[in-house]
Amino acid sequence: MTVPSDRGFSRRSFLKGSAVAGIATTGLTAAAHAVPAAPESFGPGRHEIALLVNGKEQKVTVETRTTLLDALRDGLDLTGCKKVCDRGSCGGCTVLMNGEPVTGCLVLAMDAVGQSLTTVESLTEGDTPHALVQNFVKCDAMQCGFCTPGMVMSSLACLQKRGKPTEEQMRTDLSGNLCRCGTYGRVMEAIQRTAAGGTGGGK
Fold it and tell me: Disulfide: which of 86, 104, 142, 165 matches 169 by Cβ 3.0-4.6 Å?
């Protein structure tokens, strides 16, 4: 007996349709497996990270919102960078990241992972301070001391970048650091003295 063609799906068409659907599903599954995994992310809570500080890798536990300033001061006991304004306007917490000055209160600790960090603590070898530090003392380039560590780090970046900076270049490079005692002239004198090879003990 012949089945009329207008009766709907035949057994053969059903099987063919199932086969096509199976192939399509397999293709979708393969495509889903080909999607790269999402990058690792950190949610709420505390996480251990590694920071390269003054040439040494150090582990510190932070929250995702923790600033680099707080990680250095509270987590690693590197209190040279000062917490003054805590909003990036004074430069008291300046550290170097890959040689460039940044305000630690505006950088997240997690964003500093994989970067090379330099703090003011690195400027003393044994009992001998860096020539720039000696010249800050020699030139009396400090008063209350709140701005001094950040000012030293910006001055160091200026020296490393320019060698023998002009007064205009020094003004530009120190523009992010506020000294409420007004010792800018003496700070620039200390930079010039260091650039010329002078130290606190010499002329």
Answer: 165
Kindly report the number of other CB atoms within 10 A of residue 55's CB atom. 9
Q: pLDDT digits over 81-102, tens only?
A: 999 999 999 999 999 999 999 9
Element spanning 102, H or E: strand 100-103
Domain membership of residue 96 as a residue range? 46-195
On whether residue 157 sits in a domain, the answer given is: yes
121 inside domain: yes
For 157-169, the pLDDT digits (tens) are 999 999 999 999 9
pTM beyond cutoff 0.70:
yes
3-state secondary structure of 98: coil
- Read off the amino acid at residue 142: M
What's the maximum distance between 2 C-alpha atoms anywhere in the chain? Answer: 119
CA atoms of 191 and 185, how far apart (whole Å) = 10
In a domain, 200, yes or no: no
Q: Identify the DSSP state of 198.
A: -
Task: Give the strand pairing for 116-118 and 100-103.
Answer: unpaired
Asked if residue 106 lies in contact with residue 65, where contact means CB atoms within 8 angstroms, the answer is no
CATH number at residue 107: 3.10.20.30
How many domains are there within the chain? 1
